[in-house]
UniProtKB/TrEMBL annotation:
The lineage of its organism: Bacteria, Bacillati, Actinomycetota, Actinomycetes, Micromonosporales. InterPro entries: CrtA-like (IPR049574). This is Spheroidene monooxygenase. It comes from the Bacteria.
């Protein structure tokens, strides 16, 4: 079987909504995923709930922030998202939003049985990078996973070079992930492979058997458009162009 092509563009859309519109957001999560996948030019897409990323349990959920990750055939198709029925539907209830344009650099593992970012060749990145982790937990191993996460999350909070971070999930329990944005690849590598808490979690993963399916991908951040506070931006001074909404 041939390897899936590496997409030129992946977009991450994030919306912040008023708490009064949470029921409408939940309805969108139930009805819009098929419509998102059927948009012209979409190869792969997921609507996602978000959280702080500190615990990955129900108490970590942020019901006022929602996201979509979309893999595109072309930049032209991606530029039509805001005018699509899905984009307009979220815009009607959002009080602020942001879009992150991404180029896949590395990817390993699967998501829903697919390899949505292909097999990127790696290469040098001079500037911010986004790390995406996603896993489907084995129900019998979920409790030990949740107990192992708080030390890693606490360490991530103060990691040098961290620009933004939040949790993502396709369901309240068992389908968890993280998004983190770093000033440059060196900062990401320093945390992922040299920080003791994170190294310990990596070492435990194969022996604990936490995941039924997992994916880790790294992207070059090409642009950030919109309100970066929606992403939980914690630092400035990077090389990304941020454009505030009017």
């Amino acid at each position: 079987m041939s390897e899936p092509a590496v997409p030129d563009l992946v977009t991450l859309h994030v919306w912040r909504i008023p708490r009064t519109t949470v029921p409408r957001a939940l309805a969108r999560m139930a009805t819009l995923p098929p419509r998102l996948r059927r948009l012209p030019g979409v190869r792969f897409a997921k609507l996602l709930g978000t959280g702080t990323g500190t615990g990955f349990g129900p108490g970590d959920a942020d019901l006022t922030r929602w996201a979509a990750l979309v893999v595109w055939d072309s930049a032209a198709a991606a530029d039509r998202f805001d005018d699509s029925p899905v984009g307009r539907s979220w815009a009607r209830i959002a009080r602020s939003s942001a879009r992150v344009d991404l180029r896949p650099v590395t990817s390993r593992g699967e998501w829903s049985g697919r390899r949505p970012f292909g097999d990127p060749p790696g290469g040098r990145v001079a500037g911010p990078v986004l790390a995406l982790t996603r896993a489907r937990l084995r129900p019998r191993r979920a409790a030990t996973f949740w107990r192992a996460i708080p030390p890693v999350a606490a360490a991530l909070h103060g990691a040098p070079g961290l620009l933004a971070r939040f949790g993502v999930g396709e369901a309240p329990l068992g389908w968890q992930g993280t998004v983190s944005v770093w000033r440059d690849p060196a900062d990401l590598v320093a945390f992922a492979y040299r920080h003791p808490e994170h190294r310990a979690a990596i070492t435990r993963t194969p022996t604990e058997g936490w995941y039924a399916e997992e994916l880790f991908a790294r992207f070059e951040v090409r642009d950030v458009v919109g309100d970066r506070t929606v992403l939980g931006w914690v630092a400035e001074g990077d090389q990304v162009t941020g454009k505030e909404h009017a």
